[in-house]
Design goal:
Order of helices and strands: HHHHEEEHEE
Number of helices: 5
Radius of gyration: 36 Å
CATH architecture of the largest domain: 2-Layer Sandwich
CATH superfamily of the largest domain: Ribosomal protein S6/Translation elongation factor EF1B
Oligomer: single chain
CATH topology of the largest domain: Alpha-Beta Plaits
Strand content: 15-25%
Shape: elongated
């Protein structure tokens, strides 16, 4: 067979015709064979290496865990929460400190409104504090976040901002905080 005859046998139209005939005669078997070959390739090339890496990581973790002592379970699951609760006797001191901190931050506090709530069955009480201030929005935001860092048991419930006109640099803000306290016994 000459090279030219071989090239003619492998021409694109002839190969297309041969493929169409094969699909017409054996279409279902070719489709199933192709599907099986693709699934096998995916299994060998994709899934098995990923599983072997995951298995090696799990084995490494288990050998590390076997050498280290098991962490003991905390006795009280609420212990981290109870650690941030302030004693009930400190609530008025915190209200005064909020007023002073607002004045030190350059804000103009009008007053501090507060309200005690009854103790919950979980053993803590809420002390609601509302602090109306006037100042720059960025100073108010920095002030609120500095209070949250200073008092871990303090939570910012809401901030309401109001501006007289769009041209004003200062705003009136209502800062609503909640101080979590230990329940009185």
């Amino acid at each position: 067979m000459s090279a030219r005859a071989f090239r003619d046998r492998l021409s694109a139209p002839r190969m297309r015709l041969a493929l169409e005939l094969a699909l017409a005669r054996h279409g279902l078997w070719i489709a199933l064979g192709t599907l099986f070959a693709a699934a096998s390739a995916w299994l060998v090339l994709g899934l098995l290496p990923a599983q072997s890496r995951e298995l090696a990581q799990l084995a490494a973790r288990s050998t590390q865990a076997a050498g280290a002592p098991a962490p003991s379970a905390p006795q009280d699951p609420l212990a981290p929460f109870r650690a941030v609760l302030r004693p009930d006797a400190e609530k008025t001191a915190v209200a005064r400190a909020l007023w002073n901190a607002a004045a030190e931050a350059g804000l103009q506090p009008a007053r501090v409104d507060y309200r005690s709530n009854p103790a919950t069955p979980a053993g803590f009480a809420r002390f609601d504090l509302t602090l109306p201030v006037t100042g720059s929005p960025t100073v108010i935001r920095r002030f609120a976040f500095s209070l949250l860092e200073r008092y871990p048991g303090l939570a910012l419930e809401k901030i309401e901002l109001q501006r007289e006109s769009a041209m004003q640099d200062t705003v009136e803000a209502q800062l609503a905080f909640v101080l979590l306290l230990e329940a009185r016994e």
